[in-house]
Amino acid sequence: MSKAKPDDLVDEIEQIRERLADTVDALIDRSNPKNIARRGLANVKARFVDETGSPRLETIAPIVGGAIAVVAGIVVIRSLLN
């Protein structure tokens, strides 16, 4: 069984240290509040706008319809109470 040379061990430790530093940097980047907000905004935007920048009507129409229904319901209820 051969023993590792000190220089080989130093090189291996340095490689491990670099990988660990990269991992820590990636974790810090992922947990940055600005980056979290940016990813959330991108997710919402992707839901309502396609890759070409056109609106996704299949997603927008139900939301607009629901909002109109809520407003209409409020108007009807208020008119019944008056």
Q: How would you portray this structure in words?
A:
This protein is an all-alpha fold. It has helices at 6-31, 33-48, 57-81.
Q: Please trace the helix and strand order, writing H or E for each element.
A: HHH
The number of helical elements comes to 3
**Total DSSP E strands:** 0
Strand composition percent? under 5%
- The shape is rod-shaped
Mean pLDDT across the residues is 92
Largest sheet: none
* Overall helicity: over 70%
Gap between N and C termini, in Å? 94 Å
Low-confidence stretches: none
Structural class: mainly alpha
Q: Rg to the nearest angstrom?
A: 28 Å
Quick take:
The protein has 82 residues and is mainly alpha-helical.
Task: Note the topology.
Blueprint lengths: L5 H26 L1 H16 L8 H25 L1
Short key terms for the protein model shown above:
single chain; 82 residues; mainly alpha; 3 helices; 0% strand; rod-shaped
